[in-house]
Specification:
Protein name: Peptidase M23
Strand order of the largest sheet: 1-2-4-11-8-7-6-9
CATH class: Mainly Beta
Strand content: 25-35%
CATH superfamily: Glucose Permease (Domain IIA)
Radius of gyration: 16 Å
GO molecular function: metalloendopeptidase activity
Keywords: Signal
Order of helices and strands: HEHHEEEEEEEEEEEHH
InterPro entries: Cell_wall_metabolism_enzyme, Dup_hybrid_motif, M23ase_b-sheet_dom
Number of domains: 1
Organism: Dyadobacter psychrotolerans
């Protein structure tokens, strides 16, 4: 039986999740970016200015990246460092850094698995999880840091076709108090999670979670 990664890689076409016409620029939130070791980005307005004014050159690019990245930025957020012996630092999705209000579209046919307002600083904020099936294999896609009104009129089982608008990028603080961006993640085994799923794991858990959450760029193809 084919793995989910193989099925996604061989699928002929996915609809665009973001239709922003700006060129993409890969962003680095790992230790190799010296700015992150020298600045206090715990204040969201400062972090937002750093992303959009400096990293994205006054919003002339759309930011992209993060899958499997060991991020140092999480050290400044208590939400990720509660377990000091085994802090979460490995990013399991791809982030698309674009302005609040940017529309988000489903890449393939699916239905609403669950949704929630994960209302904690550093969390997803409004979150939607869709269920899909390709070649008889079920899997899920997660969309985090949305606008709160993206959850309006949703219900479990609501169907979407590839290319349908499903949400919009949210602004801080309702989006988990982050600079505006979409966290997009693929999940092969969601277990009993509803409206939430780990988007960051510890080094100890890295092998398992990167296996269960294959590279979202197999769908995004950016």
């Amino acid at each position: 039986m084919k793995s989910l990664s193989d099925i996604l890689q061989q699928h002929h076409k996915f609809a665009e999740v973001i239709r922003n016409p700006l060129p993409f620029k890969k962003l680095d939130f790992s230790r190799s970016n010296p700015d992150l070791l020298q600045r206090d980005l715990s204040k969201t307005s400062v972090f937002t200015d750093y992303v959009f004014e400096e990293m994205l050159d006054h919003s002339t690019y759309t930011g992209i990246g993060g899958y499997g990245e060991k991020r140092v930025i999480y050290r400044q957020l208590a939400h990720f460092s509660k377990q000091e012996e085994n802090p979460r630092c490995i990013h399991l999705g791809i982030d698309i850094w674009a302005p609040a209000g940017e529309n988000i579209f489903t890449p393939l046919d699916g239905k609403v698995h669950s949704f929630a307002f994960n209302d904690h600083v550093g969390d997803y904020g409004p979150t939607i999880i869709l269920e899909h099936e390709l070649e008889g294999v079920k899997f899920h896609t997660l969309y985090g840091h949305l606008s709160l009104d993206s959850l309006t009129y949703l219900y479990t089982g609501k169907k979407f076709l590839a290319g349908d608008r499903i949400a919009a990028i949210g602004n801080h603080p309702e989006n988990g108090d982050w600079p505006p961006h979409l966290h997009f993640q693929v999940i092969s085994d969601i277990k009993n999670y509803k409206g939430d799923y780990p988007g960051v794991c510890s080094l100890k858990e890295k092998e398992y979670f990167l296996f269960v959450c294959p590279d979202p760029n197999l769908i995004l193809r950016i």
